Amino acid sequence: MHITQLNRECLLHLFSFLDKNSRKNLAKTCHKLLEVFQDPLLWSLLNFHSPVELKKDNFVLGPALKHLSICWYSERVKLCNIEDWMKNSFQKDFCKRHENTVSDFLLDVCNRCPNLRSLTLSGCGHVTDDCILQLLKNCPNLKSLKLENCVQITDHTLEAVTLHGASLRTLHVDFCRNVTQAGLQRIREKCPSVMLRAERSATMIPDSKPEKKLMLEKTSRKLVPL
């Protein structure tokens, strides 16, 4: 029996065992397999590990998407999470190339994937509070939001959770150094049912210039009791 003689349910099951590139390559062999590749039911889970992957034409965004993960761990991508005042001109130019890559992609998710249940972003240094706000508004079924080392995330995201995260049950803001203890406390008070985790966040020095950091350090020393 040839693979194209299988019914659609069997083909969807077969495709489910393949990664994104393998699915795309198989879809190029005939029109019937291309139709299976384009079926939104096949795309309930998406994982990305580099900026380049977000621009590839090897996946489909649709209402079936429930779980999305974008985790960048390479040394080159980590540049985006370094304070701007510490970057040289070459590093700034490199970061500029994919400054809007994740934000533009997440905007597509807002428009096409209203049934998203879980979102994990790690090392995405250019994701902003406004981007997360739009996701919370457009994906009312979101139950899990995990943010790690996203340096532009601030208390505005935490406030958005209190206003638009009615379905949220899990919130992680680990290593998001620009959230504050006050913002975390507001979440605990207004959303007691949310499982909140903020490892090394509000205790970290915010993204600021050296002179501001020095002022913070001097202030902290003055507050230490003798």
TrEMBL record:
Residue ranges the record marks as coiled coil: none
GO cellular component, one term: cytoplasm
Location of the F-box domain: 9-46
UniProt entry keywords in alphabetical sequence: Ubl conjugation pathway
Listed InterPro entries: F-box-like_dom_sf, F-box_dom, F-box_LRR-repeat, Leu-rich_rpt_Cys-con_subtyp, LRR_dom_sf
Keyword Cell inner membrane: no
CDD domains noted in UniProt: F-box_FBXL22
Domain of life according to the entry: Eukaryota
Record protein name field: FXL22 protein
Organism of this sequence: Hypocryptadius cinnamomeus
